[in-house]
Amino acid sequence: MGLFQNKTALTFFYKAFANNGIPEKVTIDKSGANIAALDQINDDYINCGEITRIEKRCSKYLNNRIEQDHRFIKRRTNPMLGFKSFSSAINTLTGLELMRIIQKKQVINGRGLSNWQIFKSLAA
Q: Which intervals hold domain DDE (predicted)?
């Protein structure tokens, strides 16, 4: 494991924690850089007295459901060759996620309605 990989993993975790808060558990694959970065974060935060230890769950299969769910979005966005602005990315991904939620029947109070009727009611 190189120093660059560890710095990259540290940067990722610090940005994720800054945007979303510090989690109690983190599920990762068995990547050495991620494990080393979480160990270093645990040591840094515990020495400062800020948090309790972040639990690491290392398994290459625990996060597969999440990864599989993103395949739909990747299939739609890869031909676009990226987004020109952050706002267009937000709008496009929000629409794609909304369509996916409707397709998977995860809409509350959507029983008995077609996908089009659900979309129409949400868009109104």
A: 7-105
